[in-house]
Amino acid sequence: MSSKRGSPSSATKSSSKRARTYPVINDYNRDYQDSEADVTLISSDGLEFKVHSYILMANSIVFRDMLIIGDSSDRTINLTDEIMERSSTVSLFLQTCQGQTPKFSTEKEVYCLYKNLIAFSKKYDAPPIIQLISASMYRWFYEKDPSPYYMFRIGIMLDTPEIVAFAIRNGRNRAWSSTIATEELVKATNPVATLGHVVGDPFISLSSWSLERLKEVPEAYVFAMLRATRHGGTDPEKVADGFFQIMKEMGEYTV
């Protein structure tokens, strides 16, 4: 009786065909599939970005050193940080490397995307990207009119006192507000009854910030803000000027 089972070779071919997988292509990495590119970045969520080495080397000191020292026959770089090295951030980093100015739209987007882009750019020592983001902050402010509070926080992330001073200077008449229920509002306006922002107090006073957000501010910035507020009170211009002068005195800013 003849067997109906396929030959070993046909079974192997069938199994191989089923096991074959293809790289995931989506809106993040679709523009980075050039077959002539000589470097492949693999984001922490598994997407491949085929990039020309000269783009990475021109914008990042760390990538430049990795590519100079590394094995030229295997230029695959696996990115592993599950937060800052996901495909959305890698895509934004590469767009910026190619001169596409970051477009800030909403305050939420700034923190979902640009916070990670800044962290990524710092990790891979990419001064051109940091400079481009810094320049974009002013355009974002004039086009979208975000809260100076967000400018302040981004300025700290960028470690750029000029942006922080700009945020302070434009923080006039800005105070913490809330949409919470009336019975909770009384507590939120009492500095010793809440660990959140003190509703009704001016943004430029760090003593009105929530404990969670205040922990994000480096000590040097805290000192400069407290001393500048003591000097300028509630006058944003005086506080901004004082803050910037103190940062220079501490060596936190050099021309």
Automatic annotation (TrEMBL):
Gene3D superfamilies per UniProt: Potassium Channel Kv1.1, Chain A
Domain BTB as annotated: residue spans: 37-95
Alphabetical list of InterPro entries matching this protein: BTB/POZ_dom, SKP1/BTB/POZ_sf
Domain of life: Eukaryota
Protein name: BTB domain-containing protein
